[in-house]
Input
Amino acid sequence: MKAIQLKAPGGLDNIIVSDIDDPGRPGKGEIRVAVKASSLNFHDLIVATGQFPTEDGRILLSDGAGIVEEVGEGVEAFKAGEHVVSTFFPNWLAGKPVPTVGGFAHTPGDGVDGMASEYVVRSENAFTHAPKGWSHTESATITTSALTAWRALVTDGHLKAGETVLVQGTGGVSVAALQIAKAMGAKVIATSSSDEKLAFVRELGADEIINYRTTPAWGDKVLELTQGFGVDHVVEVGGPATLNESLKSIKVGGHIAQIGILSGDEAALSVLSLLAKQVQIKGVIVASRQDQCDFVKALEIMNKKPVIDRVFKYEELGEAFSYQQSGAHVGKICVEW
Output
């Protein structure tokens, strides 16, 4: 069967299409899945480029959706023919983060082989059901970015109708957060450096838009738009370059979900602002399997399909990552066999 592997030390030129052995039949507690589609995330990119080193020959990609072909002994949650989507932390079943999710040792496409493979045999905990009526490509957008947005706003943020959410940029997490927030009756302020992208998120439902290139002190603009109070939630994907403006934007007692490191991983914070705002800043890396099950149920009710910018073939994964690096996309980039 075909698989897309990364040769050491990483780099997009070291992504290869390989013929490898079929994984065979599932054992006890396992399922065999024919993978049909995946989506790309920033985490996948930094693994592929070698910024997060992995093993030589690692099969890439955390996100995967497909069809159950066979179930092993003792598996009751799935049956052959059902549509499923992978989980990011197969060992984190429910509740608060556990020690085994302190890193990426069990994350597909990083610590273990990923979903860029025609077939996989994994623990039943490595998948949940996909939303009814969704294509495999649509379902493949759930695992990492959309579920992260769900946890940031709902599981951890306890989002309520009428609250205001700030989203940064137009990547997968931010667009999913916008859709979730609007579906739950919240107001959304969106930032981007592109007027064209801002016009697009306005069509998606953003109530206010800010071009952070022409308005670098965009935190002041957020305060202006909220009558000086600030927003209830910030979905923070920028990191060091944006965190202090996020602190300016947040209301007293608000919630910042720190998700991204797009501008690096070391920030100089205004501790005075942190104290004055009495803000909660919480680090978020995806969510538990139970959170994903809850999210799938919500998606079936919300009727909000993901925004997919472009679809490549798995064999074009290097090209897909290059497109991701360009920053031209809005929403998700996907691959299919």
